[in-house]
Amino acid sequence: MATIKEIKAGVQVNIPYRMLSKGYLDAFINHSLNPEIGLDASALDNTRHEEFRYVKKQLARVGLTTTLHGPFIDMSPGSPDPQVWELTRRRFAQVIDVARIFVPKAVVFHAGYDHRRYGFVKEEWFEQSLRTWEWVNGVLNDEGISVSLENVFEEYPEYLLPLFEQLPGETVKFCFDTGHQAAFGLARLQDWLAVLGPYIGHLHLHDNNGKGDDHRALGSGSIDFHVLFDWLAEHFKVPPIITLEPHKEEDLLPSLNWLEARWPW
């Protein structure tokens, strides 16, 4: 059975860059937590590369690994509006520049498809989206960094399947967000695993009651993580990248305790 120390060494913990740089860096170092660093517009526009390099140096000094999470508010990687698409591309180019500094295990982006908004231009949206991810992957792959595309408002796994069928599976992985699937998805957890399971390379783990994206501690809501971890134990000899995404400090330790009791590797 894995210990909490071993689990902490093998998972990431989400943290916005502004919080990491304004007081949480020492906490992550002192508690040996590998960060998944969230980069929003403010962090990208208002942080000098020297500051990013300092954070990278401090984390590397104690052997901590990183993943990055790109901006998602108002991002539309498949937008049929060329100006919106170009803005998204410029933001992602900023993320790529930061990734070159951190050299993370992966960079997470929201896949960004919302059938209620884009269903009437679905084919055009996916064509543009594919262009975006081919470009992002091409640049990051040259740096030895993989790309993780995350579900959010996609109700069904089939909405994302065309992307993963066409993108290179060695470097572009599905980031399965359990909380988003429970809060916004209409298909069962088992169906998501059946359709997109072969493409999973990254997990975002947090709990809720199925009615809102609460980002609670594992085991505190209604998500059946036993189904997920039974499936993972059967299909993965070593764990994929796993990121814990509690939005409250007090939900981190219960999540680690849950993993300690049920870690299958």
What is the CATH architecture assignment?
Alpha-Beta Barrel
Counting DSSP H or I runs of 4 or more residues, the number of helices is: 12
Gyration radius, rounded: 18 Å
**Mean pLDDT score:** 97
Assigned CATH superfamily: Divalent-metal-dependent TIM barrel enzymes
What's the CATH topology name?
TIM Barrel
Distance between the termini: 8 Å
What is the ordering of alpha helices and beta strands? Answer: HEHEHHEHEHHEHEHHEHEH
Number of strands: 8
Largest sheet: 8 strands, parallel, barrel
CATH class type: Alpha Beta
The backbone outline, from C-alpha atoms, is globular
Unreliable spans are none
Please tell me the total number of domains: 1
Widest sheet, order of strands: 1-2-3-4-5-6-7-8
Task: Present the secondary structure layout.
Layout: H1 4-10, E1 12-16, H2 17-30, E2 34-38, H3 41-46, H4 49-61, E3 67-69, H5 82-102, E4 106-110, H6 115-118, H7 122-142, E5 146-150, H8 161-166, E6 172-177, H9 178-184, H10 189-196, E7 200-205, H11 225-235, E8 241-244, H12 252-262
Parallel strand pairs: 1-2, 1-8, 2-3, 3-4, 4-5, 5-6, 6-7, 7-8
Helix pairs in contact: 5-7
